[in-house]
């Protein structure tokens, strides 16, 4: 069990206090990650969360294995102590009786372990069948999770949007929770890796899987409890491995339906003429060639606009999202990115994301250098006003209120270790 909690404190994204500037490069990175951390929600990562039918099955198997181990331990210990005390030298002055072979003893010594191994094998196979379901009727939705240094993209492969292309979301995976007429609603995941090995780990909803370039992993996850859960990359994958997080937002079936149908019909809003959002839109789509500022659209997709690149996370619903930099920062659920501190993080992120997240491949917009495939590249320039305009455009990318998934689920923050534990 692991709690992930960071409180908002100090100054924010890319604006370290003066003392920090004097630290060594490594310490600066560490200090930045601590000082810029703003995670208002405490969340619990636990494989003991029994709201997931996978964890329940694993729990039951573990109980049997642990119980058998205890019985064996006590049995062997008892025999050992009996032998030591019963056959002490002072009680047995005579020479020991010599014999060759004992059929009964050998049958017991071989038979008992065979029975235990068979029992555990049968139970393991049964649990494997329970946790690797092939029944399509249980699948509530299918999501392709793409792992990339250092973020996640979740694509709803069966849910084509009216604007073209399947529904997708960066770093926040929305899935249905609960059961349908007594049958658990599963989410089928297909895991891919774009560059190096990563690992999808959201223990509250089921088992983890390794993402290996060139191969796919398919499995299902489930939870009975609508809630927001923490997910992490669980395989050392580079400089920002620890900053490769995601959220799982499990919704009641009706709320999930509202989300997916609104997402399918979503088209990014057209900014009002002359507004900051419109200036941001133009910078997002075209960049600013005269100052070498790369267009955001070169790497990102926004559903219903010309921006359609899969290089970076999908930004279609950025205004609805509450996480930034693959979970490095979180905005308050109610105010979102209008919260002053959250807004400051967002501006710093756009301005120079590699400075606030080690290994980020996003270009800089303050003229500083950044790395692409190990090659140093000079960043473009945008004024603070232009960066604020881009942020204004991103904040305007909101799903309709009935599909605002952060409003629909509570953060899961208490461990439930009893079978069937409900929060
Ligand atoms: Cu991706 Cu660690």
**In angstroms, what separates the terminal alpha carbons?**
16 Å
Total of helices: 8
Strand order of the largest sheet: 5-4-3-9-12
On the 0-100 scale, what is the average pLDDT? 86
Shape: elongated
Q: Helical content, roughly? A: 25-40%
> pLDDT below 50 for ≥5 consecutive residues: which ranges?
1-40, 416-423
Q: Which ions and ligands are bound to the chains?
A: dinuclear copper ion
Descriptive keywords:
disordered N terminus; binds dinuclear copper ion; alpha+beta; five-stranded mixed beta sheet; disordered C terminus; 8 helices; 18 strands; 423 residues
Describe the structure.
By secondary structure, this protein is an alpha+beta fold. It has helices spanning 18-21, 25-35, 53-86, 103-131, 253-265, 276-286, 340-356, 384-395, and strands at residues 2-6, 39-45, 139-148, 151-160, 166-170, 172-176, 179-180, 183-184, 186-193, 198-201, 209-211, 217-221, 227-233, 245-251, 323-324, 329-330, 369-372, 375-378. It has a five-stranded mixed sheet with strand order 5-4-3-9-12, with helices on one face. Residues 1-40 and 416-423 have low confidence and may be disordered. Helix 3 (53-86) packs antiparallel against helix 4, helix 6 (276-286) crosses helix 8 (384-395) and helix 7 crosses helix 8 (384-395). The structure holds dinuclear copper ion (CUA). Dinuclear copper ion binds at residues 147, 198, 233, 235-237, 241, 244.
